[in-house]
Task: inverse folding
């Protein structure tokens, strides 16, 4: 479930990046890299887990699924926060620089 | 348990390599940041720029995986930071996981990056063919 949620986030962020390309004023590519990096790693983790559990991997307990869903959503939010911090720090629109100059 | 430490180590190594290559490219006069090839242009991504894709993939994935390990209580904010490091049996299991899952994660991310670099090289070569940019503009 965590992998699925992160993959959704990766695909959506990639579509958003492509829509704004080649400009990418809001550095959406950073968000793409975060989610794709995590998706690849969780995919590898899932392959190892599948090798161990076989078909049981696809029938998790509802409580585990819910926990994994919360984890996936929290990971997506964490990715957004990391992206936001990078965006504000790099300040591509120069909002903070303009304010400093005006002040 | 601590599989994310392997991609984290690779991320640290590639970050250092990126800095070194970036400074060498700047010395040689190759642009590294202002090189987003525009439509129909013949500009190319520098290698340091391509290496940045790998560091971003690795750091991004490592950050979210580290969060997952905190979520599951495998990483704690006090010494020895990894719960598996508290006894020899768990430490052996952790090292086994790092050498299998961790290494596979790092290899998978690197392979995806290599595919991205190959794809971008093909696109760059296609755009550099004489008359290609002109034809694209006409279309």
Result:
């Amino acid at each position: 479930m965590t992998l699925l949620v992160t993959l959704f986030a990766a695909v959506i962020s990639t579509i958003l990046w492509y829509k704004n390309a080649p400009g990418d004023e809001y550095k959406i590519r950073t968000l793409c890299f975060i989610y794709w990096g995590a998706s690849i790693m969780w995919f590898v983790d899932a392959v190892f887990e599948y090798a161990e559990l076989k078909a049981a991997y696809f029938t998790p307990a509802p409580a585990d699924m819910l926990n994994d869903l919360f984890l996936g959503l929290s990971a997506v939010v964490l990715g957004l926060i990391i992206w936001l911090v990078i965006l504000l720090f790099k300040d591509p629109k120069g909002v903070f620089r303009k304010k400093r100059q005006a002040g | 348990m601590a599989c994310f430490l392997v991609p984290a180590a690779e991320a640290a190594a590639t970050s250092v390599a990126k800095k070194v290559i970036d400074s060498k490219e700047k010395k040689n006069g190759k642009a590294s940041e202002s090189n987003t090839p525009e439509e129909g242009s013949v500009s190319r991504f520098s290698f340091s720029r391509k290496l940045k894709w790998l560091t971003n993939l690795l750091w991004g994935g490592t950050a979210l995986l580290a969060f997952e390990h905190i979520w599951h209580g495998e990483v704690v904010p006090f010494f020895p930071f990894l719960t598996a490091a508290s006894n020899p049996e768990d430490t052996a299991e952790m090292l086994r996981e790092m050498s299998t899952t961790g290494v596979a994660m790092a290899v998978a991310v690197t392979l995806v990056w290599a595919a991205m670099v190959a794809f971008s090289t093909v696109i760059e070569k296609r755009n550099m063919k004489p008359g290609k940019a002109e034809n694209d503009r006409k279309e």
Observations:
- The CA atoms of residues 1 and 64 of chain A lie 9 Å apart.
- Chain A has a mean pLDDT of 92.
- The interface with chain B takes residues 2, 6, 22, 24, 29-30, 33-45, 47-48, 71, 74-75, 78-79, 82 of chain A (CB under 8 Å).
- DSSP finds four helices and no strands in chain A.
